[in-house]
Design a protein that fits this description.
- The complex is a heterodimer.
- Chain A is an all-alpha fold.
- Helices cover 74% and strands 0% of the residues of chain A.
- Chain A has helices spanning 11-28, 30-39, 43-48, 62-69, 72-102, 109-117, 128-137, 144-168, 173-180, 185-196, 198-214, 217-222, 231-241, 246-266, 268-281, 289-298, 301-314, 316-326.
- Chain A is globular.
- Chain A starts with 10 loop residues before the first helix and ends with a helix.
- Chain B is mainly α.
- Chain B is 75% helix and 0% strand.
- Chain B has 13 helices and no strands.
- In chain B, helix 2 packs across helix 13 (263-294) and helix 9 crosses helix 10.
- In chain B, 46% of the residues are buried.
- Classes of the chains: A mainly alpha, B mainly alpha.
- The interface between A and B is large, with 116 and 108 residues.
């Protein structure tokens, strides 16, 4: 199964493949390279010289100027705060609920599980109109904290699904030992179980947190013009006001992507393993429970919907229906 | 006994209550209200409204913008999976066969997926500009100036241009998933087949593809739902214009939610979108599942 067993052709063709791939990667990320080049030009240069020409004198001042001419700083702070707060809020609350559901502490545990799964089936875009009316009704429309509540609520289904699967893999003996030692439910959860859930929480937080930071539609719909902006909104407004000033717009774009790139490179292992770990485990080609989680985690809500469909096909659905009929 | 049960339930409620209430109040109620509103003529402002039965749905059939939106969405549905899953598969196989620099290639192709969608779309607007845009400048530089196109203005190519923007960001995830799946292909079987004289195409079709089929299946499902939800590239690149000609269903829903006071009609559109996604996913699912059993 190891790598070197695979039959290799002449090493020459492999060098060729490697070099060709290097060129392909550069071509693929070429747009980002251009952005760096243009962000260092003057406005005149950006229009008069072609994209591949290097700036005569790098204008690092653009990166300062963009902060002065837009509200990029405050919108960056808003976005980071919203992503962090909604993740903390969502993870803490759903982890608590998952403990009750996965360990069947309550009579309603099973029902709750399937109740939370309902929103797997609903594409977020379809319900925006009624969510809008609800947000207005709850007086959350137009406030930045309102977004946190919305993100926490809409991310809860996936979180509960993932966390439950994870908690089920934690040996039950741990619970019993804790009870014998006299720890109550909340003591056991906060001191033992919650710290144990770190891997799944980190993976979920990184992937969904990046999505929230990059989200555009939610702030576009549920924020008012005067209620503060997220970074996506700010970019979309300053690119139109800097329409002719590409260096400034691109400097802003680079700065806006810095937080997400830092998180990505710091948590790369977690993110990539979150996308792929399950696929490797199901070596026999049969998607396992793990597969479903990983597929679900990575692409938002309709993804989960499709994963549920997959279970439906695998016969899991019948189990689901039977179970709900039993109740 | 009963008392301790009640106490247990109360303790439990303290754990699941907060998120259950939030989830109910926003996600579940919004879904119920969507169906409810779609049968009314509510304008979102007045306290009263009337029930109009299926009138909203009848109106949708006569709505020109909706027809355009659904046509474009289906174009995305056809193009997007082809320009994401197929290159992702080729890249995954290629990277899997590389001897050096795998990580570089993996990160390189995955990088756009984590960038901000608005920023990416704006970069591509610059790429597509007909005068100083990168693509046309490049074409001029290699003496292919005749192939210059106004990538976002020409109605024949604009849908393709928008799809490319979405695909640039959408290729990384299926590639990663397929790469992981390729690791599960049984190497001894590949060797045995090679000794028996199977060509590389035969080995790929008969051994590799069946092994990674479930992952490929999921990638296709993701691509199809992703195609139906393309929004940011349209919003930034064309704004739906000229006129309404590049509207997609999601774009139309967003526009209705933002500008319109016709909550009832917008809800009906939302309901139809919901049903369409549901239907397509189920259909595709059935088709793919059947193929899987044949293999």
């Amino acid at each position: 199964m190891t790598e070197h067993i695979r039959p290799r052709k002449k090493s020459g063709s492999h060098h060729f493949l490697n070099i060709f791939m290097f060129i392909a990667v550069i071509a693929f990320i070429f747009p980002t390279i251009i952005v760096f080049n243009i962000s260092l030009k003057t406005q005149q240069e950006s229009i008069l010289t072609p994209f591949y020409q290097l700036p005569a004198a790098p204008q690092f001042g653009n990166f300062v100027e963009v902060f002065r001419q837009s509200k990029l700083a405050s919108s960056l702070l808003n976005s980071v705060l919203i992503s962090v707060c909604s993740m903390v809020f969502c993870v803490v609350l759903t982890a608590m609920a998952s403990y009750i559901i996965a360990r069947k502490k309550s009579r309603f545990s099973n029902k709750l599980y399937y109740y939370f799964l309902i929103s797997f089936f609903v594409p977020g875009e379809a319900v925006t109109i009624s969510v809008m009316q609800l947000m207005k009704f709850y007086r959350l429309y137009g406030y930045l904290p309102g977004l946190i509540v919305l993100y926490a609520a809409s991310g809860s289904a996936m979180a509960i699904y993932l966390f439950c699967a994870y908690i089920k893999s934690v040996p039950k003996e741990l619970d019993e030992a804790a009870i014998i030692d006299g720890a109550g439910m909340s003591r056991f959860f906060w001191t033992i179980l919650f710290p144990l859930m770190k891997p799944v929480i980190v993976t979920y937080t990184l992937i969904v947190g990046i999505n929230i930071y990059n989200d555009f539609m939610t702030p576009l719909l549920y924020l008012k013009a005067n209620s503060g902006r997220t970074v996506s909104l700010e970019i979309s407004s300053f690119v139109s006001s800097f329409a002719a000033n590409y260096p400034l717009a691109f400097s802003g774009i680079i700065i806006a992507n810095v937080p997400v790139l830092v998180v990505f490179f710091a948590g790369q292992q977690y993110i990539i393993s979150g996308l792929t770990a399950g696929t490797v485990k199901g070596g026999d080609g049969e998607p396992t429970r793990c597969d479903l989680q990983e597929h679900e985690i990575q692409a938002g809500r309709v993804v989960q919907f499709s994963a549920i469909l997959q279970r439906y096909c695998k016969g899991d659905w019948e189990v689901f229906c039977l179970k709900s009929r039993e109740k | 006994m009963k008392k301790s049960n009640l106490k247990n339930e109360l303790d439990c409620f303290a754990f699941y209550g907060p998120i259950a209430v939030m989830y109910t109040m926003l996600s579940v109620v919004s879904l119920v209200m969507l169906f409810f509103y779609s049968f009314t003529d509510w304008n979102g402002l007045t306290k009263t409204f009337g029930f109009v039965g299926l009138q909203n749905f009848a109106e949708i059939l006569k709505d020109d913008i909706f027809i355009i939106a659904i046509k474009n969405s289906f174009l995305f549905l056809i193009i997007y999976p082809v320009v994401t899953v197929l290159p992702a598969l080729i890249l995954a196989v290629w990277i899997d066969n590389m001897t050096r620099g795998r990580n570089f290639a993996k990160i390189g192709f995955f990088l756009p997926s984590v960038l901000n969608g608005i920023a990416v779309s704006f970069i591509w607007v610059y790429m597509y500009r007909s005068d100083i845009g990168v693509i046309n400048t490049f074409l001029r530089a290699i003496n292919l100036g005749a192939f210059q196109v106004d990538w976002l203005g020409n109605l024949n190519v604009v849908i393709l241009s928008i799809t490319v923007v979405a695909a640039w960001q959408g290729i990384g995830t299926p590639m990663m998933m397929l790469l992981a799946a390729l690791k599960t292909v049984p190497k001894d079987m590949l060797e045995a087949a090679e000794i028996d004289g199977a060509s590389s195409v035969q080995r790929f079709m008969k051994i590799t593809v069946p092994t990674i089929w479930p992952t490929l299946n999921v990638c296709m499902l993701l691509a199809v739902s992703g195609a139906l939800k393309i929004f940011i590239p349209i919003y930034v690149c064309t704004g739906g214009g000229p006129g309404y000609l590049t509207y997609s269903m999601v774009m139309y829903i967003v526009q209705l939610v933002m500008d319109s006071d016709r909550v009832g009609y917008a809800s009906a559109i939302g309901t139809v979108f919901f049903i369409i996604i549901m239907f397509i996913s189920l259909l595709q699912f059935k088709l793919m599942a059947r193929k899987e059993t044949e293999l």
